[in-house]
């Protein structure tokens, strides 16, 4: 057998062709290295391509990452998305210097829906051939260095280095897993010196660069593909929410128990002039504990029915939010009480009063969501929306102060003293507003501005509620997917808040929309069109 020297062959588009090796036996004719057969390529569902270059892509140096999603079954035009340095560093939670160490990479992911492929191939009488071909090729994303595959990457018997099967059950249908994907990550020894093979060439050595590449592919390619094809259906969403609902109550109760134990052991030792604050904290913690039990009951009902994703989402996000706040406040409670037993300075007493107000704020938020519990579920009522908004903002008071955020609430179309009434489910409306405000609270902290502002404007005449902030805003590339379940630009986000807010609007035959773009082309506002009734 004779193997010809390796040459970098070019095709008509001047791109390097894979497998640049000629194989001959005894000087005979070249033995072809076959690619994927037509029986399978004709049944591709979607292709996702990703290009990353820290030096810039195209004519825009700020754009360092581009994805292109092509859905062959629906016949749509490729969906191209550009990501800037700011966006990529934020999502991956790294600085630009770390990204530059990776070097340029390219990835292609080809996705097949086995269930749909079976239906289509059976119609043409070639199911067995198509299945055999897919079984041969599938296995996830293979890594190619200078055209040569590294070990068994991208093979079903190889390592699941991207974790595709850990986040998607090994089944067919609407799941992005190894049995339904064929892909390649292209790197080179020259351009990617930080991506080093293991000694047995079975994969890449764990390093900051290889971890970043893995995160980049997961968050900008795999997650985007999953969202597009349905994010593995409603069951995937419910499963993630169930995890929150099932784990949060026990964690919250444990936090409260710690704080209550601190109150009991130190209450007699604190000065008389702060006894009132200590008692107030005890009362509010008791209330929160009772509310957690009620929310737990509501979540069990929602889980049993399995038909109302909105309700389960509501309970899940409430639990998650309360857990976040309580983790902070109850931890401070014990520390402050211990300090008070030894230190009676005015500063320490003032901190206790502030802590008391923060726990009261959590209670205020829980009370507004009370209709989500079993006794008030799905009950529309006529109520004053302006009063509800004031109460919700009051519940965020401590959080606004902590993050130096200036809130503003304006009413137009009526006198400030007049009610603006709506006929909606109060708990659902509270949930939608909470998610919009929470979203803004996070993003105004990311823009680098010192004057952080969140503005709510209720227009009684046009029946709209507009929420705007002065954060970095939403990229035009994301405007059509911002309300999609699972989409998020937050490093540890779940992509549920804006989806739930939009679902609340739909439930009431209303709409949640992006406000018009600012001068820089980015979107910083949401408009909730209220029911006209």
Topology of this protein?
Elements: E1 2-3, E2 23-24, H1 38-41, E3 46-52, E4 63-71, E5 79-84, H2 85-92, H3 96-100, E6 105-111, H4 114-123, H5 127-137, E7 140-145, E8 148-149, E9 181-187, H6 208-228, H7 233-266, H8 275-305, H9 309-340, H10 346-368, E10 380-384, H11 385-395, H12 397-402, E11 405-412, E12 421-425, H13 426-444, E13 452-459, E14 464-469, H14 497-507, E15 511-514, E16 525-529
Parallel strand pairs: 7-9, 11-13
Antiparallel strand pairs: 1-2, 3-4, 3-6, 4-5, 6-9, 7-8, 10-12, 13-14, 14-16, 15-16
Helix pairs in contact: 4-5, 7-8, 7-9, 8-9, 8-10, 9-10, 9-14, 10-11, 13-14
Keywords: ATP-binding, Kinase, Nucleotide-binding, Phosphoprotein, Transferase
GO molecular function, one term: phosphorelay sensor kinase activity
InterPro entries: 2C_sensor_his_kinase, HATPase_C_sf, HATPase_dom, His_kinase_dom
Polypeptide structure, described:
GO terms for molecular function: ATP binding; phosphorelay sensor kinase activity. The structure is a single chain. The protein is of the alpha+beta class. The chain folds into 4 domains: 1-32, no CATH class; 34-228, no CATH class; 232-378; 380-533, Heat Shock Protein 90 (2-Layer Sandwich). It is 42% helix and 17% strand. It is built from 14 helices and 16 strands. A 7-stranded mixed beta sheet has the order 5-4-3-6-9-7-8. β4 (63-71) and β5 form a beta hairpin. The longest helix has 34 residues, at 233-266. The protein is elongated. The termini are far apart. 35% of the residues are buried. The model is unreliable at 1-18 and 168-173 (pLDDT under 50).
């Amino acid at each position: 057998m004779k193997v010809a020297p390796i040459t970098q062959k070019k095709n008509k588009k001047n791109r390097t062709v894979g497998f640049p090796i000629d194989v001959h036996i005894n000087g005979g004719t070249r033995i072809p290295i076959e690619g994927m057969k037509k029986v399978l390529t004709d049944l591709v569902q979607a292709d996702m391509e990703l290009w990353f270059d820290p030096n810039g892509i195209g004519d825009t140096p700020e754009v360092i990452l581009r994805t292109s999603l092509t859905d062959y079954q629906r016949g749509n035009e490729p969906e191209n998305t550009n990501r800037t340095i700011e966006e990529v560093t934020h999502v991956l939670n790294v600085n630009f210097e770390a990204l530059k160490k990776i070097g340029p990479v390219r990835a292609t992911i080809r996705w097949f829906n086995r269930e749909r492929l079976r239906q289509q191939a059976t119609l043409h009488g070639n199911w067995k051939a198509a299945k055999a071909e897919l079984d041969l090729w599938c296995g996830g994303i293979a890594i190619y260095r200078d055209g040569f595959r590294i070990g068994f990457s991208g093979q079903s018997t190889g390592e699941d280095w991207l974790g595709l099967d850990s986040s998607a059950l090994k089944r067919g249908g609407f799941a992005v897993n190894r049995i339904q994907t064929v892909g390649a990550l292209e790197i080179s020894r020259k351009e990617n010196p930080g991506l080093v093979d293991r000694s047995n060439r079975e994969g890449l050595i764990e390093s900051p660069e290889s971890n970043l590449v893995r995160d980049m592919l997961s968050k900008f390619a795999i997650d985007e593909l999953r969202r597009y094809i349905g994010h593995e259906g409603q069951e995937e969403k419910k499963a993630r929410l169930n995890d929150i609902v099932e784990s949060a109550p026990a964690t919250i109760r444990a936090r409260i128990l710690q704080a209550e134990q601190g109150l009991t052991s130190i209450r007699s030792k604190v000065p008389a002039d702060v006894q009132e604050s200590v008692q107030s904290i005890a009362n509010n913690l008791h209330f929160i504990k009772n509310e957690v039990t009620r929310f737990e009951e509501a979540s069990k009902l929602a889980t049993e029915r399995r038909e109302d994703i909105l309700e389960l989402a509501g309970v899940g996000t409430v639990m998650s939010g309360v857990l976040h706040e309580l983790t902070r406040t109850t931890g401070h409670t014990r520390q402050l009480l211990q300090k008070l037993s030894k230190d009676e300075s005015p500063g320490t007493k003032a901190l206790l009063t502030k802590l008391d107000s923060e726990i009261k704020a959590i209670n205020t938020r829980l009370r507004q969501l009370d209709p989500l519990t079993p006794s008030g579920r799905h009950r529309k009522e006529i109520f004053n929306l302006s009063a509800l908004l004031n109460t919700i903002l009051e519940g965020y008071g401590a959080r606004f102060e902590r993050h130096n955020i200036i809130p503003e609430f304006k009413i137009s179309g009526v006198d400030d003293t007049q009610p603006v009434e709506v006929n909606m489910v109060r708990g659902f409306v509270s949930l939608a507003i909470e998610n919009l405000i929470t979203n803004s609270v996070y993003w105004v902290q990311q823009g680098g501005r010192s004057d952080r502002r969140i503005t709510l404007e209720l227009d009684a005449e046009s029946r709209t509620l507009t929420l705007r902030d002065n954060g970095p805003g939403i990229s035009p590339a994301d405007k059509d997917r911002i309300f999609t379940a699972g989409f998020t630009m937050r490093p540890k986000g779940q992509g549920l808040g804006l989806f739930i807010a939009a679902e609340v609007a739909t439930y009431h035959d209303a709409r949640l929309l992006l406000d018009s773009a600012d001068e820089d082309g980015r979107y910083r506002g949401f408009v909730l069109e209220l029911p006209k009734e």
